[in-house]
Each structure stands twice: as C-alpha cells, then as structure tokens.
Design brief:
There is one protein chain. With 468 residues, this protein is an all-alpha fold. The protein has one domain (21-458): Amino acid/polyamine transporter I (Up-down Bundle). It has helices at residues 2-10, 25-36, 44-75, 92-99, 103-143, 154-167, 177-205, 222-239, 246-250, 259-289, 307-343, 348-351, 369-388, 392-419, 427-458, and strands spanning 79-80, 87-88, 354-357, 364-367. It has a two-stranded antiparallel sheet with strand order 1-2. A two-stranded antiparallel ribbon has the order 3-4. A hairpin with a 6-residue loop joins strand 3 and strand 4 (364-367). Helix 3 crosses helix 8, helix 5 packs antiparallel against helix 11 and helix 8 packs across helix 14. The longest helix is centred in the N-terminal third of the chain and has 41 residues, at 103-143. The chain crosses the membrane at residues 28-48, 54-73, 113-134, 178-200, 268-287, 307-329, 373-392, 398-418, 430-454.
C-alpha cells in the first residue's frame, strides 16, 4: 500500500523531487518574447538614426545571430554532464558554479543580479513615460500641439510600483505563465502599432528619410557622434537581452521532450520573431523621422495622430512592462529567499508558509510574511532609483552594454567549452574565443558611450523632478 501511495506521489514530482514542471514550447516562447520585446524596441529607430541605413540594420542582424547562437550554447548548460539526465542547474549562477566554479561564480552573480535590478528600474522608467505620454497625447488633442502639456512622472512611477508590489506576491516563476502570455500579446500590439504608424508617416512624407551613415557631424559634434553611435550599440544589445533569465525559463519546462531541444526551438522562434519586429519598427521609424527620430518612438511624440491609437500603444506598453518586470524580478526573489532560508532554517518568520483557500476552488494561495515584506522593499527600492534616474536612453544603453559580453556571450561560451570538452586551439575553440573577444570590445565601447549620454542628461536634471 505504501508503495502505491509513493508511486502516486511521484507522479506529481520531477526527478529532482520538485513539483512537476508544466512549461511547454508556447509558454517558454511567451516568457522569452515578454523578456526580449520590451521597452528596448522603442529606442531602435533612434539607434538606427545614429548608425545609418548601412550599419544600423547590419548591427541589429549581428546581435540577433549572436544572441541565438549563444542561447543555444547556454541551453546545454541546464544540466551538468549528461544533457538529458544530468544534474539540473535551476539558475544561471548555479550553472556557472557547477561547470566553471571559482571566481566566475561571484563575477556572474554580481553582473547578473545588478543587470536584473537595472532592468526592473528601466522598466519602471519606461512604464511611467508611457503613462505620461497618454496624458500628454490627450492634452495635445484638446489644447493643440503648441501647448507644453507638462506632466509630472512621480505619481505614475508610484502607481506602477503599487501594481508590482501586488504581483510580487505570486510565489514563483512557474505561476507567471498567464502574465507572460498577456505581456507577449501586449508587446506585439504596441510594436505593430508603432510599425503601422511608421509606415503611414513614410507614406504621408512621400519619401524615405535618413542617410547611409546616420545623423551627420554638423548637426552634432564629432564627439557626440562617437558617443551616440556607441550608445546605440548598447541600446540594440539591451533590446536582445534575455540570457540572464534563460536557464530560469528553461527550468519551467516539462520533459520529455528534452528541455534542450524545446528551449532551442523556443529561442529560434523568439529571436526570429523579435528580429522581424525590430527591423520593421526601427527601420520604418527612422524612415519616417530621419535624424529627428525620438529616443522613445511612441512617447517622444514623433506621432501625434490618431491620438487614440497612440494611447492604445502606450497602454499596451504599460501592461507589457507590468508583466516583464515580474519575469526579471522573480530570479532575484528566488535567489534571496533561498539564501535566507538556508541560513535561517529555524526561523518561523523566514520559513513559515500560510496556505489561504481560494473561494469556490480547490486551490490555495501560498503566503509568507518574510516574502511579502522583502519583495515590497525591493519594489520600493527600484521605484525610488527610477525616480532619481529617469533617463530612458542612457539607462537602456548602460544595461545592454553591461550585460551583453559577460551574460550573453562570455559565460555561455566558457561553459560550453568545459561541458563539451572543446580542445584548446581547435577551430571551434578559436572561433568561440574570437566571438567572446569581439563581444567584449562592443560592451566596453557601449558602456563608454552610454555613460557619456548619462552625463549629458545630468546637466539638466533635478532629483525627483520628473517632467516631460
């Protein structure tokens, strides 16, 4: 009898003793699209404007290829040793610890979690800008485009923070599938609207604006041209970033089929779809406005009409970012809570879970006082920092630059070399090392350019005085 009970119990558990994972190709693709097609798409017209018609699209395709290739390397690090039955690595940092070890673990942890926190801050900024854009759009419609229509962004950041505090009570990543699917739908909504508005604007202009080399020296100084071009690299890198949560997403997959096979398919689908959207949105945005392409396509008011369509796009951005924030915050929550639980195993405040029955349902909601307090503090922190640094373009550029080399390329390459025992100085080894070296140079340049852009923004900035 006991064996029968144990057998039934094991039906609900994976080989690692954890509850059965329920993710599939659709859910993980939704998670990736939610993470990738984020606020970064809105700055691509500006980025292409700095680089021009030749370098802009070419660099975007380069980042797409590198991102997909590196993600394929990274998926093979979900299990240590055997790709199908080896020990699971639930997080990026755990994979680095299992495969590389040493100082790599600390380096990875610092970069990954700083990047995740930064993305949460960036999404808070972007969502408030979109909410402000809705108010300004309606103001322009009723009072005319000559009216300044100044809007204070602090209140919108606080509203976004309140929503994130509520959603942060969702215990873990696997329970966020519905939110990711909704957010993915919203990302396609506003990307499509931005694309359509760009096409309509090009049609209205009767010509394709822009130049082969981007904004010319004369309109800006030589130094500004260099800094802006480098910052554009960071913006494009940010638009493709999802490597820092790839393994966390992969850990939601059920098997069979193999998690590696499903994740590679999901990466190909997601990167292909996002690249098509990115090329269309970025190129049509640049074609519509040329060198005057705004840093945020839907909130920089390159488009005024139809105002209701612009409003729908910005509301879709807000809904998307509400979900995307959680996709990036959940790995932080899980890491901190696991470490604290391991350290204070006898503390009821830390470990006690209260299961609250859901009315008219057999399910329950898990509640922890520690989890509730700590996650609330985290959201308040990211909201306050966003209010201090409301610079969308520069923040996006810095985040993309910091994360691109180490998280997207370096660690996946090094882990793959160790996992597959790639011989030193073989063709594969040399190619992988060259790729890592090129990515390092791009990241350094993008960081420098983005910091220069941030310094320029600080010249006209007053803390907690967010007006657009």
């Amino acid at each position: 009898m006991s064996m029968e009970i144990e057998s039934k119990f094991n039906m609900f558990l994976n080989d690692d003793g954890r509850p059965k994972r329920t993710g599939n190709l659709m859910t993980v693709s939704s998670h990736i699209i939610t993470a990738v097609i984020g606020s970064g798409v809105l700055s691509l017209a500006w980025a292409i404007g700095q680089l021009g018609w030749i370098a802009g699209p070419a660099i975007m395709i380069f980042f797409a290829i590198v991102t997909f290739f590196a993600s394929c390397l990274q998926t093979e690090c979900y299990r240590t040793g055997d790709l199908f039955h080896g020990k699971r690595n639930y997080t990026y940092m755990e994979a680095v610890r299992s495969i590389l070890g040493g100082m790599n673990v600390k380096f990875c942890g610092i970069i990954q979690y700083v990047n995740l926190v930064g993305v949460c801050i960036g999404y808070t900024i972007a969502s408030s800008i979109s909410m402000m854009a809705v108010q300004r759009s309606n103001c322009y419609h009723s009072k005319g485009h000559d009216n300044p229509c100044k809007v204070d962004g602090n209140a919108y950041m606080i509203v976004f923070g309140v929503f994130e505090i509520l959603l942060s009570h969702i215990p873990n990543f696997d329970q966020l599938s519905w939110l990711s699917i909704l957010a993915a739908i919203m990302s396609f909504t506003y990307s499509t609207i931005g694309l359509l508005l760009g096409i309509l604007q090009v049609s209205a202009n009767g010509t394709v604006k822009g130049s082969l080399t981007g904004i010319s020296v004369g309109e800006i100084t030589k130094t500004q041209k260099i800094w802006r071009s480098l910052q554009a690299l960071g913006n494009i890198a940010f638009a493709y970033s999802f490597s820092n949560i790839l393994l966390e997403i992969q850990d939601t997959l059920r098997s069979p089929p193999s998690e590696v096979k499903t994740m590679k398919k999901a990466s190909l689908i997601s990167v292909t779809m996002t690249t098509i959207f990115y090329m269309a949105c970025g190129c049509f945005g640049y074609a519509a406005f040329g060198d005057l392409a705004p840093g945020n396509l839907l909130t920089g008011f390159g488009f005024y009409n139809p105002y209701w369509l612009v409003d729908i796009a910005n509301l879709a951005i807000v809904i998307h970012l509400v979900g995307a924030y959680q996709v990036f915050a959940q790995p932080i929550f899980a890491y901190v809570e696991e470490r604290v639980s391991d350290r204070f195993t006898n503390s009821s405040f830390i470990t006690k879970e209260i299961h609250i029955p859901v009315p008219y349902s057999d399910s329950t909601i898990s509640f922890s006082l520690f989890r509730s307090i700590w996650r609330t503090i985290f959201v308040i922190f990211t909201t306050l920092v966003a209010m201090l640094l409301p610079f969308f373009d520069a923040v996006v550029g810095i985040l993309g630059a910091i994360g691109f080399w180490p998280l997207t390329v370096y660690f996946p390459v090094e882990m793959y070399i160790v996992q597959r025992k790639v011989p030193a100085w073989s063709k594969m080894w040399v190619c992988l090392k060259l790729l890592s070296g090129v990515a390092l140079l791009i990241s350094i340049g993008a960081v420098v350019g983005s910091i220069a852009g941030l310094q320029e923004n600080f010249k006209h900035f007053k803390p907690f005085n967010i007006e657009y």
